[in-house]
Each structure stands twice: as C-alpha cells, then as structure tokens.
C-alpha cells in the first residue's frame, strides 16, 4: 500500500499542497479551491474541539446535497471525531434510531432540515449540541458563526489505521439499519484503488447528483476525486434536465449514478440535442444491476464509456470495478480492486469454478465491522476474516465477475436454481422490453416460481404470452416467468435501488399460490 497520512481527513493532502488554487468543490455560485477547503476543514476541526468533541466521539450530519457536508465530514475526521452521515430520505423514526444508536453528541444540520433536526435534538438525550447552517433557533448554534470564530490552523490528529473514521448506516432490506465502522487505513486503500483503476487525475470534473451521504457518491466520486485533485460539481438533487445543463455549464468529465437516473437522462433527447455534453468522457453506474441495453444506449448517446461496479458499505466499500481501459464485458461488475481477495463459494462449501454460481466472499483492507452488533459481525465474518456478502456471483476465466442478485432472491424451482438476473437479462433481449424485474411466488408443485414485472419501451407493444414464448425460445423452461405484469416503472427505495420486496408483495397478494405442472 502507498504511504498515506494516518488520518483519512487528509485524503486530499497532495492537491492541497501541489495546487491549492485549483477548484475542489463547486455548487451553484460557490467554488472552493483546495486551499479554501483545507482551511475550512481545519476550522471545522477547531469548531468541534471548541464544542468539546474528543477523538473517537460521534458527530451526526443531517444534510441534503449541500457543499458544507464535504468540509464537515472530513474536517471532523481531522479532529479525530467520527462523522455519522444520515440518510435524509429515511423516515423520521429511522433517523432517530440512527442518531440514538450512533451515540452522537453533536448534530450538525442544514437549515433545509431544521424541523427534523430540532425534533431529533429533543428526542435523543445524548445529543447535547445542535449546530445548524443559516439562522439558528434559540436552542441551537450557528454553523457560520462558529466557523468564522475558529482558527484556520489545526494539526490533524494522528490515528491508527484501524481507528474508525466514519460510521454510515446501511439501509438493509430487513431489520434495523446497521452502523458500519469504516477505518482510516481501509478508506485510504479503497479510495486510492478506485482512483487508480478509474484513472482519475486533476483534470476530472465529477458531477454528483446522487446523495452525498450514500456510498455511490462517496466511494465512486467524492473520495477518489479529492485524492486525485479533481473537482466535485454538486447538484442539490437529481433532475435529468439539471444534470444535462450542468454537464454543459461546468464542462463535467465524469458522473456517477444509478440505472434509473441514467434512463431518465437518456429520455431527454431534445435537451441532449440543445446542450454540449461532449466533455463527458466517463461514467459509473452502480447500486443496482444495470440492463445491458442501458449501457449501450448511454455510450451511443454520449460517445463516452460507462462502467459497472459492485460494492457494499461494509465490504470496502468498492469490491469490483470495471477498468477505464481494457476489455469491456457488458453486464459484468468488473475486476476485483488491487489488494482485494474474492471467492465464490457454492452451497456445498466448495469454491466455485469459473462459470459456476455461488455466494461472493471478500477479504480486503477496507472491510468494516458493525457498531454495537457483535452477533451480526460474527454471522457475516468468518474466522479467517472473509466477509460473506450474501450476494450471488459468477466469475469467468478472465477474472471478471457478474453479480446475479441476493442469495435470498434466488428462486428454487423444483430443485433447479433460478437467478432473477438471468431471467431479466433474457427478457431484456426482447425489442419491446425496457426494464424487467423478476421475483418469486409460491408454487403448489415446484415450491416457488418466477414472475416478471416489465416496463415496455415507448411505442412498443407485447403481451404476457409474447414474452413467455420469447423466453421459451432462449432460456430453460423451468426458469420461464409464470406471470408477467406490465408497469410504468419499478418502485425505488431511498437509495435508488429497485424495491424488489414491494414487487414481491404485490405479486403474492395478486396471485397467491400458482398451480399447474409448469
């Protein structure tokens, strides 16, 4: 591993010294140079010390996509504190749980979320101080005033590689969110590995329209771009028209997003024709499985490469990434990052050969345990340090890996394993199908069987029987979708992933139990 500072708050130590005058963070009319960002991070560290936040203590951050989040997150690290980025799209009870569970002493919040912040301060006794941007209420402090009063000089707290630098919470499909203990050393490794495989440098301008608190933004843009010396162009949220205009206005070269976002951008054909988006040369699409036709359409429209990757908050976060240059394998999540070990393990406990499916395990410097959850940590990590991800994968002879879905999503049809992604990929070959999501329902004879939710392309038509027959001509009969539901768009969760659980509930409520020999 390269020689880095001990504290991940110093992730931009090279550009801050090499070219402090270059832009680091841009939002609207605000531009912070690397010199500005360095000084403001030091002020944040002094601000927290003035509030008696000691090393190792938690500071919760409640922000939509606003640029102060960046200086707060890494400035807190410089003080030795642990930022807890909160998912502002979560319901209030989830927010309250995360703040309470994290043991946060200080809550720093955006004026835009003042009502929630005040309520959290009242409902969580451990939060002794509320700091807000803009005009504070009577029982809170002004972020701007505290920052102005703080010194722009601060010696970064020295930490050990295994010390915790950040505590995000996983959304999870079941149970309470889990606090994940990311470490300083692990995040330096992961951010630098992503920077190298994506070949980011100081010429990069990364458009960030995904939530800053989410791993998609942090792992695929914020961390590696700041290490590389590029600029972050932050939008307040996702709007396809605003994204297209921002690429033109700020001459963005890179963006990251989820499949639904890229689909909406590509639908804006008139706006794409009106704006110059020729500076965009690379994009990353993740957080959900990406339809192959979406990748192809993006590359044809932007004349720019788009890659898939794979990660999970406690797994690095990034495990696989498609190299910027090299063999392209559409549908694959790419190669393991340098320094990342992976295994694909069959149900019988044996390691899978190339082409065989199994559960993905990983072991790398970025693995993270769970906060106050030793039982869950013990379930997910084995004695040799491997994280059992719960995701199904298949490797090929070239070392590329394809994610097949969650292990829990695998459908056992009369003893045959059916992977939803493979059924979806086959349906997507039909010229009328834009999106497909496959879930399971009970079957009287087979135990369970797949059904499909399908979004048709504009101006195209197909019946359920058409799609069933199409699948029969290309896939195994036991895997064919027994029912096909046509929808306008799949429901999305708070992180932009397709809400499969909602679709499965809908299918089971509608169908009940399937009968018949097939």
TrEMBL record:
Residues 17-371 form the AMP-dependent synthetase/ligase domain. Keywords: Ligase. Residues 422-497 form the AMP-binding enzyme C-terminal domain. Pfam families: AMP-binding (PF00501), AMP-binding_C (PF13193). It comes from the Bacteria. GO terms for molecular function: acid-thiol ligase activity. This is Acyl--CoA ligase. The lineage of its organism: Bacteria, Bacillati, Candidatus Sysuimicrobiota, Candidatus Sysuimicrobiia, Candidatus Sysuimicrobiales.
